[in-house]
Write a structure and sequence with these properties.
Rossmann fold; HIT family, subunit A; globular; 5 domains; 29 strands; 8-stranded mixed beta sheet; alpha/beta; Endonuclease, Chain A
Length: about 800
């Protein structure tokens, strides 16, 4: 075999999981076990002995890389590692390759004599000797753990339902795929809700979704179709939705196709439509066809799908079609002697406003009655700001009007869309991305980075929206926000934030006509039982932050990562975790490399850990969150994924493994664990304290202190004396060395010095000067400003 014809010299991109300087890591095209990996030199080298020293060293190092990638997807009990070199029968020259083959308990009836794949049974897993180390054996003891076993039994041809549910197979295939094609006779809301977050992950990594369903007998739920349309609104270039109009005929197709997985392309064909009973509880059969063992069968499934997807009865799915279908479907209920009458699944009613939201709604109604056309609501993370906006926008005077929801992150927009969908289930929801095809949606969700540009604003009349919501309003001083706020003339503009402090050099309250409508901090939320109490632990950080460059109002990421991603600090974090953490931990890291490093370190210590971020080495986001909630993961190491707009009520521990340059970011990360949940007694917060003045923001924010170092010094004294004023059930503990670090950073002095230090710290931290108006909002009087600077100006 020459280099030109060698599959290892020009592998398919979907098979490559690692690229070193001289070697590649590939998924085996004909795996003997799920996760079978190959390591090959980039040169066409036939023998281990022909490889260079550098190539051999990289191949050996690649074994650890392969293990890490395998364990991101599967949970093997062990490995076989082997090398293919030389010539095979027929004198064909091989390309040198190293096999890394994961082994699972029971995959071979008699383990001697090589690797032969035999599908294990549940009994094989549960019959392992007591005490034998195996993640699989431990997790298989529960029904849910058994279902969630990575790699079980993804090679078996028949999925029989019952104990062998279709859902975990489907989710594992979605998470591993780069493209998904579904064709189902009908789809119900319960089915979409089980897989929606995994489909979002697919789209977020650039994967493609084609979805075909039908109107046969009116079984398909219009609400399920609207949720599919919501997915397409977010990524219209990646989602193709179509409907098969059965007319007087029938439509009973059920097939699911997954492309680009590590074990080859897969098709599931059987009796399962997209509903909760079919995916979770029912006895539905699905036959799995894998390209690695049945190219012809898979090709037949693909051909059938393409024929249906382009059939003369197939139509593009849009909101107008769904509205017409919903009316027709309702009429079918009154037709006697039908074979099947449309039956709606029980609708879970949206939540009612809780006590704090009710108070805010009353305040909003009052401020509009007083003639105000804008206002700011400040509510602590976890109290439901987005729900508040959805409730307020659904008042009779706005229900038939157009609403614009603006945020700076796609994650916030997607969650907001889900929230508004619960409150306004029949509304047309749209996302404005610049290429959006439905800017006339009843509720439009827009990224400020796009809509804040003049050429996009000019596509709308200034009075196009009656109600505008600007979420995470602490970002609103940026020019894009100010341009948008100045352009539109709504009947009411609502700013929402968990903290009124700005980040971009402007006065937030001035953007809402100096109208603070309502404010509720986390202390009041805890007192009313709507937020979890917390036990906070401030622990000393061994990192010397004085040696890390400070650029653009933050630590240099590369230098910071090099300082925190060390064995010593990871061991300390593990000790803190072991001593203080609960069952479900969310840990915040400073970079992708830091998160991956911590995940690998905790896994080596025997814990179930994942790293979730925006890079290819991330573990699947939706699956990781589900596993954390189910107790199948101990900790998720995150990078800028869960700071804003995500509800994680099951999290009972937050670890701050990175410095935070602003109180806003720190509060958002702290707040990820403040949601209440059954069985959650309190939130545990493990927070590192380092030798840089930015760490003073942590006690200042935790105790809601006024500006100035003296207030911090006073509260540290109270904490040591056990006399700090805290909400019910809350505790704050600083290790002695952490207190010493903080005190060494303080610069107490005369009143004028306090103002000057605040001003200088603000400029260093934010990169801009605070305005006089903002300093006044922070508690500095004009007299103090004149005493410090000799004027009342904004400089």
């Amino acid at each position: 075999m020459n280099a030109e014809a060698c599959p290892f010299c020009a592998p398919e991109a979907t098979r490559v999981f690692h690229a070193g300087a001289n070697t590649l890591g590939l998924w085996d095209g004909f795996p003997v076990n799920p996760g079978h990996a190959l390591l090959v030199p980039k040169r066409h080298v036939a023998s281990w002995f022909d490889a260079s020293d550098e190539e051999r060293a990289e191949l050996i190092a690649g074994i650890a890389v392969a293990r890490r990638e395998i364990e991101r997807r599967h949970a093997p009990d062990g490995y076989n590692v082997g090398i293919n070199i030389g010539r095979a029968a027929g004198q064909t020259v091989f390309h040198l390759h190293v096999h890394v083959i994961p082994r699972y308990a029971g995959d071979v009836a008699e383990p001697r004599g090589g690797v032969r794949h035999v599908v294990p049974t549940k009994a094989d897993y549960l019959a392992r000797p007591a005490g034998e180390p195996s993640v699989i054996a431990d997790r298989a003891e529960s029904r849910e753990g058994y279902r969630a076993l990575a790699g079980w039994p993804h090679e078996r041809a028949l999925i029989a339902g019952g104990e062998d549910e279709l859902l975990p197979h489907m989710l594992a295939h979605i998470d591993a795929s780069s493209a998904v094609d579904f064709a189902v006779a009908f789809v119900l809301r319960s089915g979409i809700e089980l897989i929606k977050e995994h489909l979002r992950d697919l789209l977020n990594r650039g994967g493609r979704l084609r979805f075909l369903t039908g109107d046969y007998l009116g079984v398909t739920d219009p609400e399920a179709l609207r949720q599919l349309l919501d997915l397409r609104e977010a990524r219209p270039e990646l989602v193709d939705l179509r409907i098969f109009e059965a007319g007087a005929g029938t439509f009973h197709v059920k097939s699911y196709v997954f492309r680009g997985g590590s074990s080859g392309d897969v098709a599931l064909v059987g009796s399962s439509n997209l509903s909760r009973p079919a995916l979770r509880d029912g006895f539905e059969w699905s036959f799995r066809t894998v390209t690695s063992r049945d190219h012809r069968g898979f090709a037949d499934v693909i051909a059938g799908f393409e024929q249906l997807f382009t059939h003369s009865r197939t139509r593009l799915l849009d909101a107008d079609w769904v509205d017409r279908y919903a009316k027709t479907r309702e009429a079918l209920r009154s037709v006697p002697q039908r074979e099947i009458a449309p039956v709606d699944e029980p609708i879970v009613p949206p939540p009612k406003p809780h006590s704090i939201q009710v108070q805010a709604l009353v305040a909003l109604e009052a401020t509009r009655a007083a003639g105000n056309s804008a206002g700011l609501v400040v509510m602590a993370t976890g109290l439901g700001k987005t729900w508040l906006a959805a409730f307020d926008s659904d008042r009779p005077e706005y229900r038939q009007k157009r609403v614009l929801f603006v945020a700076h992150r796609d994650e916030i927009l997607r969650q907001a869309m889900d929230t508004f969908r619960r409150i306004r289930p029949k509304a047309h929801l749209g996302i404005y991305s610049g290429q959006e095809k439905t800017p006339e949606a009843d509720v439009l969700f827009a990224s400020v980075q796009t809509l804040g540009k003049e050429r996009h604003l000019e596509r709308f009349a200034t009075n196009a929206f009656d109600y505008i919501v600007v979420d995470e309003f602490h970002h609103a001083c940026a020019k894009t926000y100010q341009r948008l706020i100045a352009y539109f003339e709504p009947r009411f503009l609502l700013g929402l934030t968990a903290t009124p402090e700005r980040t971009d050099g402007g006065d937030l309250l001035a953007l809402c006509q100096e109208n603070l409508v309502y404010r509720c901090d986390l202390v009041e939320g805890i007192r009313q039982g709507l937020l979890s109490s917390f036990h906070y632990y401030g622990v000393p950080d061994e990192v010397d932050y004085r040696n890390i460059p400070w650029r653009s109002s933050r630590f240099d990421e590369e230098a910071l990562t090099a300082a925190v991603a060390t064995q010593s600090r990871a061991r300390n974090a593990l000790e803190q975790y072991t001593e203080r953490a609960g069952r479900r931990t969310l840990a915040f890291c400073c970079s992708t490399r830091h998160a991956d490093f911590m995940r690998d370190f905790f896994r080596e210590a025997g814990l179930q850990a994942a790293a979730v971020h925006s890079e290819p080495s991330s573990d699947p986001r939706a699956r990781s969150l589900e596993q954390l909630a189910a107790g199948e993961l101990d900790v998720i190491f995150a990078v800028d994924m869960f700071n804003e707009g995500v509800d994680l009520p099951d999290v009972d521990t937050v670890m701050m493994l990175r410095p935070t340059e602003s109180r806003i970011l720190w509060l958002q990360q702290f707040g990820r664990g403040l949601r209440t949940a059954p069985g959650k007694d309190h939130l545990r917060v493990i927070d590192y304290i380092g030798n840089h003045r930015t760490f003073l923001l942590k006690p200042q924010t935790l105790f809601n202190l006024p500006p100035g170092d003296k207030a911090i010094a006073d509260v540290l004294n109270l904490v040591q004396q056990g006399a700090a004023d805290l909400p019910p059930g809350c505790e704050v503990t600083y290790e002695l060395k952490a207190i010493e670090i903080l005190r060494a950073l303080l610069r107490p002095g005369p009143e004028a010095d306090v103002v000057r230090f605040y001003y200088e710290d603000f400029r260093e931290r934010e990169g801009v000067r605070p305005t006089a108006s903002e300093m006044h909002h922070e508690g500095y009087s004009p007299r103090m400003l004149r005493k410090s600077y000799g004027c009342g100006c904004d400089s």
